[in-house]
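User: Just a sanity check before I run the rest of the batch. Below are the structure tokens for the first item. I only need the designed sequence back.
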């Protein structure tokens, strides 16, 4: 059996542990919104927090650490005054771009639109 035949066989299985893990990872509260912001070239912590309504500093910090541990986000400290920290998607993280775009399109087509949250 060749590699592509193995992959095709896995795709037909009703349960895939890789798929399950990926959905659990990017499906955590706020993670999808953070990924979408990073894909839109928003890199600074404060800008990420302002982009996602209702996201607390604590939760943003937790999710960024999780994504960093998974190799999806890299954290860079820029030694200037004041110190600046930026977050960027790795190659692995940028590979999620098509997934995020596809899910966004599905949501716009099939989910009831909620009113846009007001910004302070």
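Assistant: Here's the designed sequence for the first item:
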């Amino acid at each position: 059996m060749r590699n592509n035949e193995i992959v095709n066989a896995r795709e037909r299985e009703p349960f895939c542990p890789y798929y399950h893990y990926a959905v659990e990872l990017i499906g955590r509260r706020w993670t999808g919104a953070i990924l979408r912001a990073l894909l839109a070239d928003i890199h600074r912590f404060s800008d990420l927090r302002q982009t996602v309504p209702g996201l607390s500093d604590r939760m943003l910090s937790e999710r960024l650490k999780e994504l960093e541990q998974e190799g999806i986000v890299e954290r860079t400290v820029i030694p200037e005054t004041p110190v600046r920290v930026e977050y960027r998607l790795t190659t692995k993280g940028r590979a999620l771009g098509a997934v995020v775009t596809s899910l966004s399109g599905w949501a716009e087509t099939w989910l009831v639109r909620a009113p846009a949250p007001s910004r302070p």
